[in-house]
Amino acid sequence: MATPSHARAVKSLNKSPGLHGRRFVFKTFSQRIEEIEIDVYSSLNKIKSVPSEGSTFLRDCLIEFRELNTAEDFISFYEEMMPFVQTLPLVILHKETIFSQLISRLQMKARLSVEAILRLIAALCRDLPDDFVSFLPRIVDSLVSLLKSGADREPDIIEQIFVAWSYILMYLQKSLLENNRLVDVLKLTVKLRYYPKEYVQEFMAATTSLLLRNASEGQLRKGIARVMLEVVKKPLPVKKYGASALLYFVMRGTMSMPYSRPDRVLQQLTSKRIFSIGDECDQGKFLHQDLV
Description:
The protein is mainly alpha-helical and 292 residues long. It is globular. The protein has helices at 4-11, 29-34, 57-68, 72-81, 88-93, 95-104, 111-127, 136-148, 155-178, 182-188, 190-193, 198-213, 217-233, 237-252, 262-269, 272-275, 284-291; strands at residues 13-14, 25-26. Helix 3 (57-68) packs antiparallel against helix 7. The protein has a two-stranded antiparallel ribbon with strand order 1-2. The protein has two domains: 26-174, no CATH class; 180-292.
């Protein structure tokens, strides 16, 4: 019977012709990380705009993954949760129970269910866009815990984490930006944005940059100021890298949706208001130059 280790071994194979005609050569960790592409917009045509009639996004997603996932822990979750997700009023009524059960299963010992659980969390976000914002701090803590428990050395799980995070922000962006919550999101994502692995910081920057690109001028200014202040207060290499990555992806956009207004961000970065953030710090201006 196939095991998780067998599946990882197959995905790690480099099938291009190699040295001395060897076709199957194991890919390095760096190669597998470089091949990860987080761009949910390129697959939006596959996503339903509305749930099935009389159903919920969560129920539809649960049924979809029940057909794809035969892991014992996922099957038990399916059987436990199905009665609570039949209709939107039921999901609203049991939202805390559903969410708590979801994040409790984000563990490496249940690695075969991680992708399904992450996608279910994103589906719950679609059902509860206004209520879901209060769950964000616990999601961030759960993702950090998952990465620290070994997921940060598993390219497949890293990709699953940030695909789900990207969907969550995409579904929540209207609510977050209309209610001026950009700075709040930056505050609660500090642990992920400055996670001590550069490739994790880059994926986090790429996905979170969506909010800054779509923010109003006022929110964009406050968001950039928040990022600059984080680095000025504690100018550690990990923070310089994470902040630079975020600003880079804000200006670049995604491969399928390049940003057409990078000048908008540059204007904010070179404004007197942003430069003044480092005035009280001897290294402030130098740090600003490094980041820009």
